[in-house]
Write a structure and sequence with these properties.
The complex is a heterodimer of chains A (463) and B (525).
Chain A (H helix, E strand, L loop, with lengths): L19 H13 L4 H27 L14 H12 L2 H11 L5 H26 L26 H34 L3 H10 L7 H34 L11 H27 L8 H32 L2 H12 L3 H16 L4 H4 L2 H28 L14 H24 L5 H11 L1 H10 L2
Chain B lengths: L6 H23 L5 E7 L2 E6 L5 H14 L3 E7 L4 H7 L7 H19 L6 E9 L2 H7 L4 H11 L10 H30 L9 H9 L1 H16 L11 H4 L8 H5 L6 H32 L3 H28 L12 H26 L8 H32 L2 H13 L1 H18 L9 H27 L8 H23 L11 H5 L4
Antiparallel strand pairs in B: 1-2, 2-4, 3-4
Helix pairs in contact in B: 1-19, 7-8, 7-9, 7-13, 7-14, 7-18, 7-19, 8-19, 12-13, 13-14, 14-15, 14-18, 15-17, 16-17, 17-18
Classes of the chains: A mainly alpha (463), B mainly alpha (525).
Chain lengths: 463, 525
């Protein structure tokens, strides 16, 4: 796929004079070595949070949804906010691996593996929320159109919530297949290096008998392309359909046509921010600075800046058209968002999502690691607030002033949310210890065109 | 390598424009009128006119009808008045009474629909009474009402379209469509620089050529907007002071509510800002790339990289507001937050198709030795992907409004489905299914035959997309596809392509000092 020739002015994507063998060694190191103290500390904290979340989930299911802060007016709050937030984060992985593959962006190879892992783990967190909200999760299969003996029990195909079921499960499946396909040659590399029989056994199982023959590679390339082609519309469709959950309604603030593309842009925005959060830490801890270079971080920052600006344009468009429409309900919904009792949420969203990414226009800032890390956290907070603003502020001023309320989360709401964060990090930390976190087979394909040593060699030889 | 326009290309493009002009003139002078007649019963006809006509013109038409319908006593009633009066007064036979009622009901509801825009200028109920009953009972089986309807339909009874709504609307459609093609090329050029793309360097001069034809679109849009501002046509209802004057009989509170944005001074500031910004960026990019040709080095390149990003910032805002100003404000009451992005996707795609066509032509003539199948494939992929983007946005906008069914929003699609059904859905089918089916495969995206045939179909499809955006708000149900439309499109197409080719001939076809030129030359996948 990759182009054979690269212009000298392009910056190297692999630094530190790597050879093919060194790449293998560097990628296998975290797996073959032992976990250090920090890893155990972070892992333990995550596990505790996760367990706390599990406790809250059990409490919810055994007592009822009433333990949440929901009320008659605001019947949807943190649950759906968290759901959309996690789904959004789960967008970057497939975007990086599929869309950037189609765009032949070589820099994706340093980050795609972890981004995809993050995607899968965050979609899993997202899936928990509707499941818990069902109240009786053991009946979850009722959302599927399965022929049954229950009389009139059948799904409502007119409901975007059902489309969500299909969209998300398809997305999860394809992302998983895509991820695992890419992992095959890398698992095989670990298998071939493994000295302990148990490790060898496990890695030969998960690498599906990869032999490294030309035919394997040929099929690998083909399936990657096909999956990329399939995954690209899926990236768009998932958040589009999530946006339909709101936009098909007639609630002022929810019903607006810009939602589908704007949700997609917002999802990519938050997803890239999360990738930055994770990788900035991981490159340091696992000594992968030569593969996830400053150039990678800068490019991700640019993506964050662009998608943040798109989201900003959408906010302004919504605000403007609400006024322009001449519909007083629309006008009020947006006035209330910006100046009503939840003004702080609105302005938190605006500051984090629209203003802060604009700082990335300055090269100094976008090439600063610590600044990138801070912004990535800020953006994730902002994107959580975006969903909260859309959902709660549009609901809390109901049609009758007598039903106007506010929403305050109960400890269970907070507990479940924190629990999913814990769960997410548990999964990610386990992944970082057992999976090849860099797509080493792919990185090796660009070593000669984009490795700093080869670039230098070409410069010296004049071509 | 320099390109010179061959005589044949000159003849074909200018010939196309000339034939278009002739057709346009014929179409213009032979256009059927917008007086519409509907039979109520044998003695009564409803006559409707949606154009601009003062009372003197209306009186002339009444005289004409009286003349043509000699032998009948002709009565005119304004149907804006109470409908029931007519039922009592006129001489309809008892059995057709119920039919009459339903017809009235349907005209009534149409009023409500159009009231959101200009509304018909008049609707008359014309009642016909025989003066000499004996004479007609013999030979004629055709009733007076039938005669009148057929005379109106044949254009025998009509007045010229005084506002020339059809002409102006078409000018807007073509002006905007071809302006959009240039703008799409300019956008992609800026994107190419801002993203540091390498593959398309060998095509950049073609993008430059296409964006160089922007003055055509700007000039035409300026004419349309200036004439509209002075009341020469009524494409934009909000330009009409009647609607925003609280003392006027036609006062429209919704349009009045938009006055802070939709008013002539502010509108003109914006319009001029769009044109000036786009044109200045265009000039600057061209100048800089010539400078790079002369001087080499990477300085010009990095300047263009930064300027490309700056352009995208302006474009992000202006592409949306421009779509609201020039197109969405035709249906002044209506609003859709997605509209700007939807229009943008069409602009981008139309630009890409034009790039493909010009590239294929020049390559066939042997001018682009470095453009290989992979470049063609990549442009083909853009056509494929952007068709999906357009369809996605079309569907999102349509589905959400259709699903929610909120009256003030859904009216936009109701009108289109009622009066433009085939065009409305046909455009979507052509622009979505054709690229999806035919460009899915790798081979078709590399085959000139497929690219030209399907490309031209979706090109025309996107012209119709603009048509669907404009006409329902200006011509309502009285649109036509005739020589006027065909001629004007041909004229624009010929002139546009000629201008593009001429612009391409003004500079070397290769940007020889572009830092990514080697990458582009070696492009293969």
């Amino acid at each position: 796929m990759a182009s054979h020739y690269e212009a000298p002015i392009r910056k190297p994507l692999v630094t530190g004079n790597k050879t093919y063998h060194q790449i293998s060694v560097d990628v296998a190191k975290p797996i073959e070595g032992k976990a250090n103290k920090q890893w155990w500390i972070v892992f333990s904290i995550s596990l505790v949070l996760f367990m706390w979340g599990v406790g809250c989930m059990i409490y919810t299911i055994s007592t009822g949804i009433g333990v949440w802060g929901l009320n008659k007016t605001v019947g949807w709050a943190w649950d759906i906010t968290n759901f959309v937030w996690w789904i959004g984060i789960g967008h970057a992985g497939t975007l990086i691996s599929a869309v950037l593959l189609l765009f032949r962006q070589k820099w994706r190879m340093g980050i795609n593996r972890s981004a995809e892992a993050m995607t899968i783990f965050s979609v899993m967190q997202a899936g928990l929320f509707p499941l818990i909200h069902m109240g009786r999760p053991w009946l979850a299969y009722w959302v599927l159109p399965i022929p049954n003996q229950f009389g009139s029990l059948w799904v409502n195909f007119n409901s975007p919530l059902l489309w969500d079921v299909f969209a998300i499960s398809t997305y999860l499946t394809v992302s998983l297949v895509f991820w695992w396909t890419g992992l095959l040659p890398d698992f095989a590399m670990i298998r071939d290096r493994a000295v302990k029989p148990f490790q060898k056994k496990i890695y030969s199982l998960v690498s599906f008998g990869w032999s490294g023959r030309a035919k394997d590679w040929q099929r690998f390339e083909e399936i990657s392309l096909v999956l990329a082609g399939l995954a690209t519309p899926l990236v768009l469709s998932v958040h589009t359909i999530v946006s339909f959950d709101f936009a098909t309604s007639v609630i002022p603030g929810w019903h607006t046509t810009i939602f589908p593309p704007y949700f997609v842009a917002g999802a990519i925005f938050s997803g890239f921010a999360m990738v930055n959060t994770l990788l900035i830490v991981m490159r340091k801890v696992c000594n992968l600075e030569d593969y996830i270079t400053l150039q990678h971080i800068e490019l991700m920052n640019i993506v964050i800046m662009i998608t943040g600006s798109i989201v900003g344009c959408a906010y302004i468009t919504e605000l403007f058209i609400a006024w322009y429409s001449g519909v007083e309900y629309e006008q009020y919904a947006f006035l209330n968002r910006a100046t009503g009792p939840y003004w702080w949420a609105y302005w938190a969203m605006m500051t984090c999502n629209v203003f802060s990414p604009q700082l990335m226009w300055f090269k100094k800032l976008r090439t600063s690691i610590i600044f990138s890390f801070i912004i990535s956290i800020v953006v994730n907070i902002g994107m959580w607030f975006e969903r909260f603003v859309i959902i709660v502020t549009s609901l809390h001023r109901d049609y009758l002033p007598s039903s106007w309320t506010m929403f305050s989360p109960s400890f269970v709401d907070i507990g479940i949310f924190i629990g999913t964060i814990g769960f997410f990090f548990v999964l990610f930390l386990l992944y970082a210890r057992t999976f090849p976190v860099i797509a080493q087979a792919e990185v090796k394909t660009i070593l000669k065109s984009s490795g700093d040593n080869y670039k230098k060699m070409r410069d010296k030889n004049g071509k | 390598m320099e390109y010179t326009i061959s005589d044949r290309a000159k003849k074909v493009t200018l010939g196309l424009a000339l034939v278009g002009l002739v057709l346009l003139v014929i179409g213009f002078f032979s256009q059927k009128d917008f007086v519409y007649a509907e039979k109520i019963n044998d003695h009564a006809v409803s006559i409707k006119y949606n154009g601009k006509a003062g009372t003197d013109l209306q009186d002339q038409l009444k005289e004409k009808i009286k003349q043509k319908m000699h032998g009948y006593k002709v009565d005119f009633h304004d149907a804006h008045a109470h409908h029931d009066n007519h039922t009592e007064n006129h001489h309809a036979s008892e059995e057709s009474e119920s039919e009459h009622e339903t017809l009235h009901a349907s005209t009534g509801s149409e009023h409500a629909d159009h009231a959101a825009h200009h509304g018909p200028t008049f609707v008359w109920d014309v009642h016909l009474d025989h003066e000499e009953t004996a004479e007609n009972h013999g030979g004629h089986h055709e009733s007076g009402a039938d005669q009148l309807v057929s005379m109106v339909e044949s254009g025998e009874i009509s007045f010229a379209d005084k506002g020339n709504r059809r002409f102006w609307s078409n000018l807007l459609v073509n002006g905007f469509f071809f302006f959009g093609i240039s703008l799409g090329a300019l956008f992609y050029l800026a994107l190419h620089y801002a993203t540091e793309s390498g593959w398309g360097v060998v095509l950049l001069r073609i993008f430059e050529g296409i964006m160089s034809a922007m003055p055509i679109g700007i000039a035409v849009l300026l004419v349309v907007l200036i004439v509209g501002s002075f009341g020469g046509h009524h494409i934009y209802p909000w330009m009409d002071p009647e609607y925003t004057d609280p003392n006027s009989a036609h006062f429209d509170p919704i349009i009045f509510g938009k006055k802070a944005y939709l008013n002539l001074p502010f509108f003109w500031i914006r319009a001029l800002a769009y044109f000036a910004t786009f044109y200045l960026f265009l000039r600057w990019f061209k100048k800089k790339s010539r400078q790079e040709d002369r001087e080499g080095g990477t300085e010009s390149h990095f300047k263009m990289y930064r300027r490309g990003a700056l352009f995208l910032v302006f474009f992000a805002v202006f592409s949306s507001t421009m779509a609201w100003d020039f197109i969405m404000s035709i249906d002044t009451h209506w609003f859709s937050t997605l509209f700007g992005w939807y229009v943008f996707s069409g602009i981008w795609l139309s630009g890409m198709i034009m790039v493909m066509m010009v590239t294929l032509y020049l390559r066939k003539r042997g001018y682009l030795p470095y453009v290989n199948e992979s470049h063609i494939h990549d442009v083909g992929k853009w056509m494929f992907a952007l068709s999906f983007l357009w369809s996605y946005l079309w569907f999102s906008q349509f589905m959400l409004i259709w699903y929610s069914n909120i009256p003030e929003e859904v009216i936009y699609f109701t009108e289109r489905i009622e009066n433009y059904k085939i065009l409305f859905f046909g455009t979507f089918i052509v622009n979505f299914f054709f690229p999806m089916v035919f460009f899915m495969s790798r081979d078709t995206k590399r085959s000139a035959g497929y690219l030209i045939v399907i490309g031209l179909m979706i090109f025309v499809g996107h012209w119709f997309d603009v048509f669907n955006m404009v006409m329902p708000g200006t011509l309502f149900d009285q649109w036509e596809l005739g020589l006027l439309e065909l001629g004007m499109f041909m004229m624009f197409l010929g002139t546009f392509v000629y201008t593009v080719l001429r612009a391409i001939s003004k500079a070397p076809l290769l940007q020889k000092n572009h830092p990514y030129l080697e990458e582009s030359k070696h492009h293969e996948f």
